[in-house]
Amino acid sequence: MLKQLEYADSILRSDPLKAYEMILELSDILETEENKAEALSIETKALLFMSRIQEALVKSEELMTIAEKNNFLKWKTEGCNLLGGVYFEMSNYDKALEYFMKGLTHARTEKDFQSEAKILNNIGDIYNELDVLDEAYNYFQLSLDMAIQYEVISLIGVTQLNIGEVYLKQDKYDQSLDRIKTAISHFSNYEDYVGIGLAHFTLGRVYKVLNDKDKAKSELLLSINIMRRLHERNNLVLAYEIMIELLVEDKLYAEALEYVEDAMDLSKLLSSKRELGDIALYAAQIYEVQEQYSEALVYYKLYAETRSTYEKDIEEEHQKNISAQINIEKAMHEKEIYRLKNVELRKKSEEIQKLYEDLNTINTISQDITSTLDIKKILYLLYENVNKLMDATLFGIYIFNSETEMIGTDLFLEYGKPFTLGDIKLSDENSNGAWVLRNKKAIFSNDYLREYTQYKKDYNVNRTKHDSQSVILVPLMTGEHVVGAITVQSMKKDAYKEYQFNILKALASHIAIAIKNSQESDKLSLEIQRRIKTQHKLEILNEKLSHMSYIDALTNIPNRRSFVDYFTRELSRAKRQHENIALLIIDIDFFKEYNDNYGHVEGDKCLFLVASLLKKALKREIDFVARYGGDEFVAVMTNIDYDGAYLVAEEMTSNISEHAIEHTYSPIEDVISITIGGYSLIPENDISMEHIIHRADNALYKAKDRGRNQIAFWNDIKDNS
């Protein structure tokens, strides 16, 4: 049992699913509390590797219960580290930090240097997630040094990859590639497939930034295959999304749609609205380019539904990040994190306390403004809160229209009452707002009447009733795009402090998101109203066209065209995933004689009945049967081997035989019988659909030569040739 636990732990990163299954098999025979704790640790890590976060949370809490009950200091350390990892995956960074700090205390008490190295890396992950990149690098490098010193083999590749990620964010691409390739080499030496998959995914991102699309797609495809096998869902969705983007850029729409289907299923499984919306938009654009408007409309509608909520989800996640950063600063102030090497106390206690209060203020304001899509409500919410922090005699938001290059001033308040300066051109040399938007820079002046010449030529143009002596004006950006600017002005000189300027800069990103959400909501509402007007007619037409194009009118099962489309898609999937695929061609014996003697009406009834009996033999939803033409049918089965396909063929013949449809004009039976030719294989890339059909057809004729009412597979004919 101990050897099995040790083996399960050793294969965690190469095959987490197998490790998890081993622990389940051992659960009933674990003898001691120590064994149970070790098993729970392995089980939790396996669940984390497979992105099954809620299950991991339950198991890590069970581990902590055993550790606390038995005072197992080692497993307290491990439990805290795993709980921190779970909450990190849930983006609950403050809770993650709390557990990492508890684990660090336990590790140092026991002089458990291996656990200490792991926790240092995990704290680096939090800084990396918050884009505090210099601190992230310091923690990762410190973790790497300890991992090498104390031979924590599993951690060496992880920290190298993490440092490569930091370099990528810092645009240091050569250094990033070096670190990632070093990580891959280490992961490969120890068969760490989780690490290999993540490293190739990161390589794909680097090559994408470098515009080397072939290398990017190659690396992403490799990572996707590994993640599929390991059931690593979260990063798999991200890899799908980047791959789809690259394929769309290269106009490889059919291949992109194959990834879209898998990505959408996985996004729904993970309840990931952002990825679901982004992928739906890709699908809609692809169908629109291909002039398949009804399909495009379906995906545009899905995009609109998810878009209306996921921007708010993003902002909520941002709030969690801010909360985590607050707790990090508090923890550092309380001398928990500052005990780590190479980190110095950077701020005085009162400065940290001030930062803590300001961040909480920003958090409160941003929650208020992102709770509404009404832009005027956003203005008054901001004014009410900002006026508590600083003198806001004049307060306003400039709104920029990139299409017309005009700047709106409808959202201005002076002494709390609305007023407007009228629309302003972006090129206007006598507007502070135009200067800020053109230069994408802020204005901070406590002596504006003396300094205004830096921003406008003529003071009297575009001026308000009262002369502002202190002016703050900050651009509102989403990525590299400017959407407007916010200004706070006072009639007093030296009215503002540096920290108040910093508060407005910190609020700018939240305000920009709120404005963008409002604008996108308005655009989407108009677009949805326009599209809904034609949606009903398109849906009816699409339903009719779909039925006519893909369903056989007589038998009410898919027709030949539907078969060709389905078989083409599934053959492509089988090639990519290296899975079995099987084809059956079914022929009704002496059907011409049946038609000639019983009449075409009875013949049509017979075809309908045979179709339903063939379909009944298919037990899985993914199996497919269609009318190929006349009295000939085809069946396609994926992810099924020769024996499975043969059993299906036998059930088809059995169903027909048991139903006993009278056919006294058949030379071989008194009832309807069928002959089946089949072919089962794992297709290579050069195998075509026509090739498979040809071999199944040859098997059918072989069965007919033998006297009909039987089954023949090309696999058997080939083996006997």
Topology:
Layout: H1 2-10, H2 16-26, H3 33-49, H4 53-70, H5 73-89, H6 93-110, H7 113-129, H8 133-149, H9 153-169, H10 173-189, H11 193-209, H12 213-230, H13 233-249, H14 253-270, H15 273-289, H16 293-333, H17 349-369, H18 375-389, E1 394-401, E2 406-414, E3 417-419, E4 424-425, H19 432-439, E5 443-445, H20 448-451, E6 470-478, E7 481-490, H21 498-550, H22 560-577, E8 581-588, H23 591-598, H24 600-616, E9 624-629, E10 632-638, H25 642-659, E11 674-681, H26 689-705, E12 711-713, H27 714-720
Parallel strand pairs: 11-12
Antiparallel strand pairs: 1-2, 1-7, 2-3, 2-4, 5-6, 6-7, 8-10, 8-11, 9-10
Can you characterise this structure?
This protein is an alpha+beta fold. It has helices spanning 2-10, 16-26, 33-49, 53-70, 73-89, 93-110, 113-129, 133-149, 153-169, 173-189, 193-209, 213-230, 233-249, 253-270, 273-289, 293-333, 349-369, 375-389, 432-439, 448-451, 498-550, 560-577, 591-598, 600-616, 642-659, 689-705, 714-720; strands spanning 394-401, 406-414, 417-419, 424-425, 443-445, 470-478, 481-490, 581-588, 624-629, 632-638, 674-681, 711-713. Among the domains are: 1-90, Tetratricopeptide repeat domain (Serine Threonine Protein Phosphatase 5, Tetratricopeptide repeat, Alpha Horseshoe); 347-521, Beta-Lactamase, CATH 3.30.450; 560-720, Alpha-Beta Plaits, CATH 3.30.70.270. The protein has 27 helices and 12 strands. The strands form 2 sheets. Strands 1, 2, 3, 4, 5, 6 and 7 form a 7-stranded antiparallel beta sheet that branches. It has a 5-stranded mixed beta sheet with strand order 9-10-8-11-12, with helices on both faces. Strand 6 (470-478) and strand 7 form a beta hairpin. Helix 5 (73-89) runs antiparallel to helix 6. Mean pLDDT is 84; it is low at 324-329 and 331-349.
